[in-house]
Design a protein that fits this description.
Blueprint (H helix, E strand, L loop, with lengths): L11 H25 L6 H8 L3 H4 L6 H23 L5 H19 L14 H27 L8 H13 L1 H4 L4
Helix pairs in contact: 1-2, 1-4, 4-5, 4-6, 5-6, 5-7, 6-7
């Protein structure tokens, strides 16, 4: 009788495979959200892009809103990482340049131009509160960086809040016109 090989569901190999599939689902959802909009996208649309049945998605996410929520969390995690990376850069000008460049990369590569930032209202009130709070923290970091640049005379004197909103608005607007193809 052949030996039966048992795989521990918590093994690193299984966890890595599960994480890869989770990321594939999120990327497929982002493409669908970009093309059809969040409200017009169904779990069937996402599953079709992965060549699986809708029921396969339920092994990873309980519903479409959970997918949207994870897309938001991951993108905000990327922005948090970007801000952390700037702490090693010597000047506000270099830090702001890094944030802008990397935020554009998140919009075009990670989010593939998905209008994710415009879909916060589709989340439950608790999830909206969490995502908006994280987004506000990021905006305050950009604003503090502009204020530091003004104090250091690297930037001309402007309203830092308006400048931060203008930059972030321009970057987020990429979702309205960018198409990877």
């Amino acid at each position: 009788m052949p030996a039966v090989v048992a795989f521990d569901a918590q093994s690193p190999r299984v966890r890595a495979k599960r994480e890869r599939r989770r990321v594939e689902i999120l990327r497929a959802a982002l493409r669908a959200f970009r093309e059809r909009g969040y409200h017009q996208t169904t779990l069937d649309d996402i599953a079709e892009r992965l060549d699986v049945r809708k029921s396969a998605l339920y092994h990873y996410f309980p519903d479409k809103e959970s997918i949207l929520y994870e897309c938001h969390r991951e993108s905000l995690g990327e922005l948090g990482r970007i801000v952390a990376e700037t702490r090693d850069l010597p000047t506000p000008r270099e830090r702001l340049r890094h944030i802008i460049r990397e935020h554009v990369r998140v919009m075009t590569n990670t989010l593939e131009g998905s209008p994710l930032a415009f879909e916060v209202t589709a989340l439950s009130p608790e999830r909206q509160t969490e995502i908006i709070a994280a987004r506000d923290r990021y905006e305050r970091e950009v604003r503090r960086l502009v204020e530091q640049g003004i104090r250091d005379k690297e930037f001309r004197r402007v309203d830092a809040k308006v400048a931060a909103f203008a930059m972030l608005g321009a970057i987020n607007w990429i979702a309205r016109w960018y198409r990877p193809e």
